[in-house]
Write a structure and sequence with these properties.
Mean pLDDT: 81
Largest sheet: 2 strands, antiparallel
Strand order of the largest sheet: 1-2
Number of strands: 2
Oligomer: single chain
Low-confidence stretches: none
Shape: elongated
Radius of gyration: 23 Å
Length: 176
């Protein structure tokens, strides 16, 4: 129980330390990726499947890279999980709103066809497999992205140390 309290206090401190604009852009891009995942992109090849969430995915990964660079991969992963929690809450709100009886604005543009209302209700209400798939894909890619950035940072630091050592050896400068 002590570890859980420590983790949540660390997460609260982290979330208050993240720049608000970065966190807002990150949340917005995660939510937009999930909403746009309902539309697939027609491609000329059958073996590749893409959805429109890829259009804004670069914003989420740019924010994750910035967070990893400044706070580390563990912190970026915690922020990613917090963003997923906010995304799931927003999806729940949209789902509940789609259950409310009424007509969407596009209903009047298309000659009052009930198909439009049903389509928009299912798009904004979402389907469980799109939400589950996009959530699992995002958290997997976030963890891989954050820790691969750590490996890149470590390799650049190791490279600097090795270069420093070989410069010393080549120029006959004492190492100690």
């Amino acid at each position: 129980m002590k570890h859980v309290k420590a983790f949540f206090s660390e997460a609260r401190l982290l979330l208050s330390s993240v720049p608000p604009l970065t966190f807002a852009l990150f949340l917005l891009s995660v939510f937009a990726m999930n909403l746009l995942a309902n539309k697939s992109i027609d491609l000329p090849v059958g073996w590749l499947a893409l959805d429109c969430g890829i259009v804004v995915s670069w914003v989420a990964f740019l924010c994750m890279d910035v967070l990893t660079k400044h706070f580390g991969p563990r912190a970026a992963t915690i922020v990613s999980v917090a963003a997923i929690g906010c995304n799931l809450l927003a999806c729940l709100i949209l789902y509940l709103a789609s259950l409310v009886p009424g007509t969407w604005g596009a209903f009047f543009d298309f000659g009052e066809q009930p198909v439009v209302n049903d389509a928009l209700d299912s798009t904004f209400g979402g389907t469980w497999y799109v939400l589950l798939g996009s959530t699992v894909a995002f958290i997997s890619s976030a963890v891989i992205n954050n820790f691969s950035n750590l490996i890149c940072i470590w390799s650049s630091q190791i490279n600097r140390i090795v270069n420093w050592f070989f410069d010393r050896v080549k120029n006959n400068i004492p190492i100690i």
